[in-house]
TrEMBL record:
InterPro entries: Bbox1_ANCHR, Znf_FYVE_PHD. This is Uncharacterized protein. It comes from the Eukaryota. GO terms for cellular component: centrosome; cleavage furrow; midbody. GO terms for biological process: abscission; mitotic cytokinesis checkpoint signaling. Signal peptide: none annotated. GO terms for molecular function: phosphatidylinositol-3-phosphate binding. Residues 47-58, 113-125 have a biased composition (Polar residues). SUPFAM superfamilies: B-box zinc-binding domain (SSF57845), FYVE/PHD zinc finger (SSF57903). Pfam families: ANCHR-like_BBOX. Residues 47-74, 106-128, 204-226 are annotated as: Disordered.
Amino acid sequence: SSSYILILQHGCPVCKFSFCTGCLKYKLVREGKKLTVCLRCAKLSAGTTDDSGQQSLPQAALVKPSPGLGDDSVVKVTPITSATDFESQSNEEESIRNRLASLRTVHDDDASSAGQSHNTSSIGPQDTVDIEKRLAALKGTEYKDAAMRNAAAQRFMAPDHRTEEQKVQDLIGQYVTETKLDEVTDSRAAEQDEEIVRRLNALKEIVPPTEAPARSDNSDSDTDSTKDEILARKLAQQYVEEAKIHRRASMDSSSSESLSDDGEGPLPWCTICNEDAVLQCKGCDGDLYCTSCYDEFHYDDRGEHPTVPFRKKRQVKAK
């Protein structure tokens, strides 16, 4: 069994790696010595030898002519043998450079002149005017030629030749004018406010009962007067309700003052229809009314005829 064991007992003298006896079987000669090396070192040494052999060949052997090129493709170079030949060649090159520069200058001049002639010949002043007119028509504006535009620009951008004193006076005059305009506007606004206040006060006034039939009989009354009358009635009704609220607090005292001093109260029925009285009118010297009669006869002047609830006085039986 020991014959099958691989033991690395030998080393390659080139790469210094350890190998067995079977791997170190390649021969190599280096510096006059025969060495036993590994396969890798043997291949590397063989490649290095081929490269060195190829480099040792002359330069002419490495350059191979291409088979597709003929004799015409070869540039013939004339060798310079003396200083005279060198001077003649330099003069020829200088003449060629001068000719090329002159040709470029002529070509540039021809191109610029051709471009200018093309521009001037293609668009004339009349064509420019026609184009401007068409643009103005498309924009919906009036066409103005160059003279009119220059005049307008000078008018709008006229220089200010006024002195400092004139500028101050003009500024003061402008301020005075603006102040007068503000005063006129304020006075108009004040008049409008007064008119509104006057109309509101007229609407708040209660219509007297004597004027109500006259308004109803007037055939020339319009819609505005009707609306004013309705609004006045609503305001009067509101004032009556507010008066009732204030008088309810002193209802007991008011009812006691309305009774006579002799201890006998008024008859507890309405002065018009003899129904049971419910209200006592202060504006009618304490007369008693039922609800329907009071509404019928005091519809338009409730504000002048405040009322208090009427209560029957309890009669105390004598013992």
